[in-house]
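anyone seen this seq b4? input:
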Amino acid sequence: MAQRARPAGGASGRQGKAQAAKAPAKAGSSERAKAVASGRAKASGAAKATGAASERAKAGSSDRAKAGSSERAKSVASGRAKASGAAKASGAAKATGAVKASGAAKAVASGRAKAAGAGKADPATSGRTKAPRPAGPASGGSKPASPASSASGRLPGLGPTGSARRDVVLAGPVRALAVVEAAGAATLASGRGDPAALVRKEQAALLAVEPEAGAGAVVRVVVGGSLTEDEDAEWLARARGPLEVRAGWVALAGDLEAAPWGEAREPVPEAAGAASAPAALHVVAVPPGRWTVHLYTHRPSAVGRALARRWPRPLGGWFRFEHPGEPVPAWLAAELVADPTLDPGHEAVWTDRAAAEADGRLRVAPSGPPPVAYLVHLRPAAIAVGVDEARADGLLAATTGQRVPARCPVGLRAAVA
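predicted toks r here
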């Protein structure tokens, strides 16, 4: 059987067909590959874009966070600064307030301390002390106010030092120290005077004293102001009583019964520095008002001699210790002659004073006016001080407010004839 003849180029044709078939496949594969690649590229681009966007977002978020944090930090810092400023201002205000309050408290405390200190009795006092008197009247009726002070602190009609001083000699015997207002003096002159009643009415301040014989006693009267350093340092006892002055003067006497109260009348102005002659009664000008009378006892007095017996150191030895080699005051020399035991170890000097002065073992100061025995200081009642309780008879005890002075008393020189 004859075989069909294959057309020429058959294998080649199949190969061509196959190739032709492969060509579209390759082309499709290539297109798909390109598409995939393109998709991947797009995906990559999108991813990159997304990453970039993410980076930008992160950066923006970071910037915003930083900015926000910075703003918050600034705000916090500003708040803290304001708080700090407020705290400082508050602290300063509180400090200022505290300082002012402290200053006010100190001023009040100072004021109270002064009032309390003035109202207390001296630490060495033996008498009882009353509370300060109220500013109003003690009984019915209107009473004059305390003497007014000017801007300089001086009382009306007084000297430039703020006080007026006058030394007087009460002719002996002196049995009491009596400071009596005009109405009280008139009552005593009528013979109807009861010392206790006068004291209750604040018409008299009375001090019981040891009898002063002979020429009596020198009394210094100080109206207003303050005591001098020596006056304040030398007193041995102090008693205080209220007094209301209406007529502008007070009478001073050393004997309630024997004093010529009928002669007490408004004083005639005296020349400055004029000395008063010894008398049983003296009248002293005092501005009207309410006063506190301070009655001081000094060493050159009968009461002073009695009080000094209780001192731990005899007066003569004390003087030698504090004033070695100095002349002995004449008043003290007279007392040491009367009682040589007051100068232990030197008794022989005083038993023969003339010989001791002749051979130089003793020096005595020249004689002069007698020293102050008592001092009367009238202070305005507006100055808050206490008053002492009088005895049943109206007199203040001589030992009221007694003390041992911090230094040896040498006596106050009096301005008397």
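The longest strand covers residues 204-212. The mean pLDDT is 71. kinda curious what u guys think
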